[in-house]
Amino acid sequence: MRRSRLLACVAAASLLLAGCGSTSDDSATSDTSGSGGSGTQYPVEIKHALGTATIKEAPKRVATVNWANHEVPLALGVVPVGMAAANFGDDDGDGLLPWVDDRLKELGGKKPVLFDETDGIDFEAVADTAPDVILASYSGLTKEDYKTLSEIAPVVAYPDQPWATDWREMIELNSTAMGMADEGEKLVADLDAEIKKTVAEAPELSEKSAMFLTHVDTTDLSEVSFYTTHDTRAKFFADLGLKTPASIEKASSATDQFSMTQSAEQVDALDDVDIIVTYGDDKLVKALKADPLLSKMPAVKNDAIVLLPNTPLGTAANPTPLSISYVLEDYVSMMAKAAAGA
Fold first, then answer.
1. Number of helices followed by number of strands (H, E) in the chain
2. What is the Cα–Cα distance from 81 to 92, expressed in whole angstroms?
3. InterPro entries, from UniProt (predicted)?
């Protein structure tokens, strides 16, 4: 984990925000927006897959729902009034991933209300924070979710498909909604530079292909489920200098969904996969190697498998504004090790 690199990256963005946002012991009712940093003209309209968010004036109270949307305001020096509690990788059970906890401590002020989304969005809790805008550009909002949230405040949903917004689009959309588009653009540029530098130190990844298996059920390996090219985890492979296997490209072209399933009897189609990334442990590897069909996959035969645990590191494959600097080196190192055997 590279906390120092995270702080260096967000510090660069924070320098643009002097005098903006809640960065002291202000209460959550104080101005938590960074509006004005980009000279934004209001009203702002943001079109997305579920409608149009019309933001009539600079938002003072920012709330976020679903995974990681809160990392955009935090990276830009703004503490949300409410945000979703972490539901994966939270190894200490406090609802905060370590890079979020570190950033909140750095910014100071009153901590956000954490929304428990175990059973879906807690609309009452969101309403209680009285937000001026709700950020959900990376989310799985349904039309019903969107309608209910829109009765509370303008909602910035995903631009195309659920859970398909990559980290750059997340920053672009959420920062624009906050009136901080220029600061968001600077954050993207800083993270791009960091990724490029880290990947340059892992030449093993060059020309290798990778696929991401979804959560594998070792009791039933009759099917292979994987993330398509529409999913952010698969999209991140390109940032790391990895190729998308032609087999995954072809399968993904037939759907707009973020995941697919095919019969293990068709596993020969995946012979062009050099590296497999998935969630699990050594028990999973043993199950794959023992399976008469899946054991034939080159990545399985060559032990070119990256296993992501249910810890903060396990979120590395799904890049977010604050997590990239925290876990990037470790994730690239794991990928390079797998690539060396591919």
1. 12, 12
2. 22
3. ABC_transptr_periplasmic_BD, Bact_iron-sidero_bind
14-22, long-range: CB < 8 A, 24+ apart: 14/76, 14/77, 16/182, 16/183, 16/186, 17/76, 17/77, 17/78, 17/180, 17/183, 20/77, 20/78, 21/76, 21/77, 21/78, 21/79, 21/107, 22/78, 22/79, 22/107, 22/109, 22/110
Segments of the chain assigned E as strands:
44-48, 51-55, 62-64, 82-84, 113-115, 133-135, 155-156, 210-212, 223-227, 259-263, 275-279, 305-308
Q: How large is the greatest C-alpha to C-alpha distance in the chain, in angstroms?
A: 63
Please indicate whether the domains covering 3-196 and 203-341 agree at the CATH topology level: yes
pLDDT at position 38 is 58
* Residue 155 region by backbone torsions, left for phi larger than 0, else alpha for psi between -120 and 50, else beta: beta
Paired residues of 114 in beta bridges: 83
pTM of this structure = 0.87
Q: Give, in words, the CATH class of 203-341.
A: alpha beta
The fold of 3-196 is Rossmann fold (3.40.50)
Q: Supply the DSSP string of 189-239, one letter for each residue.
A: HHHHHHHHHHHHT-GGGTT-BEEEB-S--TT--SEEEEE-TTSHHHHHHHH
The reported pLDDT for the residue numbered 34 is: 44
Residue ranges for the chain with pLDDT beneath 50: 1, 3-36
- In the chain, where are the structural domains located? 3-196, 203-341
CB neighbour list of residue 270: distance below 8 Å, 6 or more residues apart: 211, 224, 245, 247, 297
DSSP, res 253: T
Q: Are 125 and 63 in contact (CB under 8 A)?
A: no
